[in-house]
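Cross-posting from the modeling subforum.

Setting up a comparison between two proteins and wanted a second pair of eyes on the formatting. Protein 1 (sequence, then structure tokens):
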Amino acid sequence: MSQVLPCCIVSENMDVANDNVIPQKTTFLLQLPTELILNVLDELDLRTLLLCKGVSSWLEFAVLPELNCVLQVCCFFRNVISETAIFQYKIELFVNGMVDGPPDGLDVATRLDRLVRRQAAWDNLKCTEDKSVDMLTGSVWELYGGVLAQATRREFLTFRQLPSQYRGISERVWTVDVSQIDLRDFTFDNAQDLLVIAEKPCLL
């Protein structure tokens, strides 16, 4: 990796007035198979990937002919990163504060498209559908992780998974019998399959 990245980054201490400052191997990088470059870039952490994508934008303002060779390589890297779905997917996940989950049979391009459309919908507050959910008779409820849970006369807890078109989540409803518990409050974490119930204290 150290043999590749220095060709894309210009050091602040580099003497660009020296004709020999630009390594000859920058042109060699352009001759490498694209598949090999993709494999190398795929091993980069996100910060380095973004740096490799953005450094060519800085070099575009440079007018020194000595930087032309480096600029060609950096522009090539930028185009590869910008036009490759897996790299854009990693960047969009970071921007949206999300992590990659199970693919569920979807390729990277489809997941990227859903992620971009989801973020655009949030940015413009544009819903894919409107749905009203009636509140049940119980007074205790909780909304967490896309799941709405409500107590039903303190006998059942009704859980409703809210649908998401972009995330491929369908709506479903299930109940938990709590009739043997004098329910006071509850919380849950659906990702951990965890339900915590606070029971009313018994008065002597």
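Protein 2 (same layout):
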Amino acid sequence: MHPNTDKEFLINTGSYIVINRGRVPAKDVEFVLNFKVDEISVWPQRQYTVEMNPEGRQIVRFATFAPKEIATVNIINMGKALPKVLNVRNAESVGRMIEVYPQQRLPKYFTITIWFLLIFGIFFVGREIISFALRIVRLVWT
């Protein structure tokens, strides 16, 4: 419920992780949204500017991104859908979108057990395939 009215409204949030996976600093990084949002925040705190281009697209601009540097751009819209990210680019290249999903971190013993069973299964299936192939060869040659 909105604090000043009895009407319900929707708050949409989105988080985007921007990473420089290169070996050199990225200069003049632009994060372009399809339309203006109500609120933008960047974490960890760093200097950035928010601008509108002539077509009405909102641009979050960073001066530089060091190699392996990571920043999260969080956006909030109240009562309307979130815009799509149109582009992430710098002076030398264009970024690409990689979808990620949060995943529970499993205990180490569980991961080791899964790896052991996977490797054991590969050897077992390989042995059965070779055994089957040898039986076929024996049938054909005898």
